[in-house]
Amino acid sequence: MKNYVICFLMVIFLSNTDLHSQSNSLKNVKIGKQLWTSENLNVSSFRNGEAIPFAKDKSQWLFAVANKIPAYCYMYFDQKYEPLGKLYNWYAVNDSRGLAPIGYHVPSDAEWTILEDFLGGRDVAGKKLKKPSSFKISAENSSGFNGIPVGDCEGDGGHYYINKLAFFWTSTEKTDIHAWLRFITTDGDYVDRRANGKFDGYSVRCVKD
Question: What is 53-113 written as a DSSP string?
Answer without folding.
Answer: PB--SHHHHHHHHHHT---EE-GGG-GGGGGG--EE-HHHHT-TT-SSPTTEEPPPHHHHH
